C-alpha cells in the first residue's frame, strides 16, 4: 500500500495580520509544529522569527530550541529555511552550526534548484511586484558539498519551473545527486503566479520529465490553496505540502496548521479555493479518533532512518478513488530507499 507524507511549512515570512495563528517565538513555533505533527505531518519546515516583531531571523539558537522542543514530542523530519546569500558557506552557516549537536542537527538539506523572477500579484489593486531570486549552478554544487560535509545525506529539492527540474536531472546524471530524490513541485497560485499553475496538466508535465527516476515528490501551491491538488497528487503516487508559509487563508477561514494538516488527510473531498467552512471532523467521529486516524484515513508509518535513529514517522494513507487510474497510468511513487 502506498505511503503518503504530509509536510507542514509552519510560518514562512507571513505576519499575524494575515492570520493570527502565525507563530513567532521558538516556543510558539515548536508548539505549532507538534500540533501539525499530531495532525499527520511527517516533515516540518519552520522559519525562526524575532519573538516580538515577527521579523525574519536566522538565529541558530532559535532553531536549536525549536528542534529540541519538537523532538521531545514527535519524530517528524525537521529542516530550516535559507537566508538570501550568494556564498554557500554564508547561506548555509546555520546548517553547519546546527549540525554540530545531534539534538539540533537538521534531518534534511534544502535547495531551490534554480533562479527566477519571484512574482507577487494583488488582484484588488492590479499591482504586480517582482524580485530576482538567484541560485546559480555553482552555488547549488557548493551547497550540496557543504551539506555532505555536515553529514546531511538527503536534501529536499524545490522546483519552481521546468528549468529547476532539468537541473536536478543533470545533477543526477553527473553524480552530484543520487536516487531516491525528494522533490517539491511549487505551483504558482493566484497571489504568487510563478511557474506552472496548480493543475493536473502541470503535474503531468513534471512527471513526464521524471520517468524512470526513483523519486518522492510533493505538490505545493504558493499563494493559493493546495487542497484541490492534494487528492490528485495522492492518486498519482505523490505527497502533499501544506502550511501557513505557502498560503495564509486570510479570507478563507484563517485556519491553523493543525486544521490544514487535518483537512489534507480527509478522504476524497475537493476543497474549493474560497467560501469554505473551517475543516470539521466527520459526524460520528470523536476528537480523539480523528486525531489518531484523520477523517477517512488509516495511520501508517514511513521508514526513513536518520542520524537520530528515528524511523517511525507519523503520516497517513489516503483512500482516494482515482488511485486505480494512477496505477493504470504507471505513475506511482517509488520507495523511499
Question: Which characteristics define this entry?
Answer:
8-stranded parallel sheet; 11 helices; two-stranded antiparallel ribbon; globular; 12 strands; TIM Barrel; single chain; alpha/beta; 337 residues
Structure description:
- The protein is an alpha/beta fold and 337 residues long.
- It has a single domain (6-329), classed as Aldolase class I (TIM Barrel), CATH 3.20.20.
- The chain is built from eleven helices and twelve strands.
- Strands 3-2-1-10-9-8-7-4 form an eight-stranded parallel beta sheet. A two-stranded antiparallel ribbon has the order 5-6.
- The protein starts with 5 loop residues before the first strand and ends in an 8-residue tail after the last helix.
Short description:
The protein has 337 residues and is α/β, with parallel strands linked by helices. It has helices spanning 26-38, 60-71, 88-91, 93-98, 137-149, 162-174, 200-209, 230-235, 257-264, 287-293, 323-329, and strands spanning 6-9, 43-45, 77-78, 109-112, 116-122, 127-133, 155-159, 181-188, 215-222, 239-242, 297-303, 312-318.
State Rg. 19 Å
Low-pLDDT windows of residues: 267-337
Q: What's the CATH topology label?
A: TIM Barrel
Tally of structural domains: 1
Q: Do you know the CATH architecture?
A: Alpha-Beta Barrel
Number of strands: 12
The total of helices stands at 11
**Structural class, please?**
alpha/beta
Largest sheet: 8 strands, parallel
Biggest sheet: strand arrangement: 3-2-1-10-9-8-7-4
> In CATH, what is the class?
Alpha Beta
| Apparent shape | globular
